[in-house]
């Protein structure tokens, strides 16, 4: 495959079966088209000319495996992505959270952390951060480590600042970070109540009960059977009357857990667990 053409489905199946046996990470129920695109991109980035050579490298080298997970799970993210979602969170969810003495939030599939700090800023501006604990998890340990640093390219801050204002932001975004010539470093007080950890939605269990779970733009990469399993995991991890937030292209429609929720904001995919 010197031109890195798209590998065949049976080759990908063999690769992920071996990865499951070696590392216990299960990618077998990821959407086929997405998995094929990403494995093809990994072939290029690893500069190997066959999927067999890629498999040999991954099984022998744990760092190569980490790069593989990073390549499979990489996603588009930004601060205050979909500002209308954060505006709805601020006006419709924050008043619910304000009724609790302590608040636990889970951001499942946190990627490199932009959305984690967005939620932290909203909670800070609404006076809830000091009694909140945010658990930020991702299957990709490289992304988790990047998120924990809280360092983002300064070039993106103009767009992020505009999105922050659209979401109802009460202060300039620049008050939350220090900057050098290239990067913005978010202040330690925004990190103080965040726990970063690796967690695999495919095969890891629930680890707490949460008042809010945001799992946005993750389910679209799973097939229908895996989506059902993950939604059940999230449901089991929510307190009664807890809030679930999904991505713009995701929904509870036709899922087994749909009757367990009431809609808070259908446009922004915010739901409240009632059963």
Write the layout of secondary structure elements.
Elements: H1 9-23, H2 32-46, H3 51-60, H4 62-73, H5 83-97, E1 103-108, H6 114-125, E2 132-138, H7 141-149, E3 151-153, H8 157-166, E4 177-179, E5 183-186, H9 188-191, E6 194-198, E7 210-215, H10 224-237, E8 238-246, E9 261-265, E10 270-273
Helix pairs in contact: 1-3, 2-4, 3-4, 5-8
Structure described in brief:
This protein has 275 residues and is α/β, with parallel strands linked by helices. It has helices spanning 9-23, 32-46, 51-60, 62-73, 83-97, 114-125, 141-149, 157-166, 188-191, 224-237, and strands at 103-108, 132-138, 151-153, 177-179, 183-186, 194-198, 210-215, 238-246, 261-265, 270-273.
CATH superfamily (homologous) name of the largest domain: Vaccinia Virus protein VP39
Question: Gap between N and C termini, in Å?
Answer: 52 Å
Alpha carbon gyration radius: 19 Å
CATH architecture descriptor name of the largest domain: 3-Layer(aba) Sandwich
State the share of residues found in helices, binned by percent: 40-55%
What fraction of the residues are assigned to beta strands by DSSP?
Answer: 15-25%
List segments where confidence is low: pLDDT < 50 over at least 5 consecutive residues.
none
Number of distinct helices: 10
> According to CATH, what is the class of the largest domain?
Alpha Beta
Shape: globular
Going by helix content, strand content and strand pairing, the class is alpha/beta
For the largest beta sheet, what order do the strands appear in spatially?
Answer: 6-2-1-7-8-10-9
Please state the average pLDDT score: 95
The tally of domains stands at: 2
Largest sheet report: 7 strands, mixed
If you consult CATH, what is the topology of the largest domain? Rossmann fold
Order of helices and strands: HHHHHEHEHEHEEHEEHEEE
């Amino acid at each position: 495959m010197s031109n890195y053409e798209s590998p065949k489905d049976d080759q990908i199946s063999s690769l992920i079966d071996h990865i499951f046996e070696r590392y216990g990470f299960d990618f077998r129920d990821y959407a086929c088209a997405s998995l094929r695109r990403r494995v093809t991109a990994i072939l290029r980035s690893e500069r190997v000319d066959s999927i067999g050579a890629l498999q040999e490298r991954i099984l022998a080298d744990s760092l190569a495996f980490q790069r593989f997970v990073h390549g499979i799970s990489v996603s588009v993210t930004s601060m205050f992505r979909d500002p209308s979602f954060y505006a709805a969170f601020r006006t419709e969810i924050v008043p619910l959270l304000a009724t609790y003495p302590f608040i636990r939030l889970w951001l499942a599939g946190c990627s490199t952390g932009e959305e984690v700090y967005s939620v932290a800023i909203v909670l800070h501006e609404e006076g809830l951060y000091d009694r909140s604990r945010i658990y930020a998890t991702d299957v990709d340990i490289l992304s988790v480590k990047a998120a924990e640093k809280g360092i983002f390219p300064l070039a993106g801050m103009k767009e992020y600042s505009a999105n922050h204002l659209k979401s109802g932001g009460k202060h300039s975004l620049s008050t939350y970070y220090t900057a050098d010539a290239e990067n913005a470093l978010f202040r330690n007080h925004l990190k103080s109540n965040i726990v970063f950890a690796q967690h695999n939605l495919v095969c890891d269990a629930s680890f707490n009960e949460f008042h809010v779970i945001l799992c946005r733009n993750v389910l679209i990469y799973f097939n229908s059977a895996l989506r059902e399993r993950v939604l059940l995991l999230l449901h089991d991890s929510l307190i009664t009357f807890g809030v679930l937030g999904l991505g713009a292209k995701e929904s509870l429609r036709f899922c087994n857990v749909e009757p367990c929720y009431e809609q808070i904001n259908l446009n922004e995919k915010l739901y409240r667990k009632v059963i």
